[in-house]
Structures are given as C-alpha cells and as structure tokens.
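Appendix B. Raw example, untouched.
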Amino acid sequence: FFPFLLEPVKNAFRGGGWGTFLAKLSLVWVISLIPWTFISEDNVHQIRWGLRCFPLLRVPEFVMGMALALRVNQDKDEEDLDEEEAAKDDEGKGKREFSFHPRLLAPYLPLLAIALSVSYYVYRVATWPEGCTCLTSNWYH
C-alpha cells in the first residue's frame, strides 16, 4: 500500500513555493490529529494502542515524510541548477551574488527545536500551580 502513495503525494505537493508547501503540510498534520480527538477516559488504552500500532492510522505521518523528502530533493536540484547558472553568469565578472535558499536554514533547525523545548520547559516549571501533583499516570503510559 505505502509504495503506491508516491505518485499521489508527488501530484499533491507539486508546484508552488515554500508557503504553499507548508500550508499543504499543515493540512495533512491537522488530518493526522483527528483520530486523537476520539480519546476519552473510557477508551484511552484501546485507542492509544491502535494509534501507535495500526499502520493505516499512520498514513498522514508517512505522507508528510514523503512530501518533505520530495521537497528536499527538489530544492537540491534547484540549488544545483542555480549554482550552474551563477557560474555561467559570473565567468567574466569575478563577483558572485548571494541568493538565500530555505535549505540553508536546515543545520540550525535542531538548535531551534532544542531552544523552543527548553523555553517551554522553563515556562511550565515557572507557571506550575502551587501544591499540584502530576496528572494520573494512565494519560502518560
């Protein structure tokens, strides 16, 4: 089933810039959250087990990974093409103009994620209610 998703994902995420790509990716992410809305106190164990183990409920995450991989490959090809064109244009000039590409931010994204996580943790510790204990453990296990 999963290999047959390649062409539909290519067609759905083809074209457009980064804004369009992120909007489409956000839509798939919201769709992936829908099954989690059915969790209640009564069915928490059964539904959480299904969401973790049943492959069809993981299709949105798989599609997001495929779309991101396709976008990275597309950006790599575009960047290589831009470098070739810049080299042809700059042969006689000796000066090369810098062009920003979203791919240049990739090495800094893990640092950003860590900074956001630590900031959120500090915020939660600072705003923790007085005398509060943890929630019941069945929500975490």
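End of appendix B.
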